[in-house]
Amino acid sequence: MSAGAGEEASTTQLSTVDTAGRRLWIYPSDVSGRFRTRRTWVSGVLLFVFLLLPWFRIDGHQSVLLDIWNGRFAILGLRFRSHDAPMLLFVFGGAAVLLAFVTSVWGRLWCGWACPQTVFVDVVFRRVERWIEGDAVRRRQLDAASWSAMKLFKKALKWSAYLLISLILSHSFLAYFIGTEALAAMMAHAPAQNIGSFVAMAGMTLAVLFDFGWLREQFCTLLC
Predict the structure, then answer these.
(1) 2, 150, 189, 211: most buried, per Cβ within 10 A?
(2) How many alpha carbons fall within 13 Å on the CB side of residue 73?
(3) Edge-to-edge strands of the sheet including 72-75?
(4) What percentage of the chain has pLDDT greater than the value 90?
């Protein structure tokens, strides 16, 4: 893994910033091996679960639904209404405690193998970046080069792909909260007819694009 061209990180500070506090862009090299292959498979399974889980139905109901506005909740066959909120507190409280336990005891396992930030950035966004811009050496050379028609084309193609992926991820995330049927109906109509959901989706898309496309490891360093 290497930092930005012509810059070196201090051994007494974060490796992703220089001595002036400016970001050093990371160019991860391609690696292979048994654990890398296993990690890719685990990340792929988690990604497909996230994308497909809302579309599965159990007893005629969406497998996971957190419809806060209408007070409808479904978790793998268990269905709740708003008056069952105390029961949901136990469910989400238990999930929060489990997550805290896993991250405290097996922090590296969580961050490296199962954290959504790692899964989406490493398996999706960086893979697209490698396909379009090449390996770590070529990506660094491209960023250091002056602007040309080829550089503009590659950057535009990469960010267009990022935007498309961000739209898919934000729509999938929204399906957990409004339901797949409502989502499909909204997509069939003009945005003005569902302005609130459209604004939420657009904001989510921009947040995903900014986080996974640009912020990346800075999220873990600064916010996690």
Answers:
(1) 211
(2) 17
(3) 64-67, 72-75, 78-81
(4) 35
Q: What is the pLDDT of residues 204-216, one digit of tens each?
A: 999 999 999 999 8
Token readout for 63 is: 């497998």
The answer to whether residues 39 and 112 touch, using CB atoms and an 8 Å cutoff, is yes
Higher pLDDT, 2 or 87: 87
Helices (H), the chain: 34-52, 85-105, 107-109, 116-118, 126-133, 136-144, 149-178, 180-187, 195-210, 217-222
Of the given ranges (1-10, 44-53, 171-180, 215-224), which has the lowest mean pLDDT?
A: 1-10
| 175, pLDDT greater than 60 | yes
* Alpha carbons 97 and 101: distance in angstroms, whole number: 6
Taking the chain, what is the end-to-end CA distance rounded to the nearest angstrom? 21
Cβ count within 10 A of residue 213: 19
| The model's pTM | 0.80
214, 176 contact by CB (below 8 A): no
- pLDDT at 6 (0 to 100): 47
Query: CA dist 109 to 31, 119, 204, 218, Å?
Result: 18, 12, 27, 19
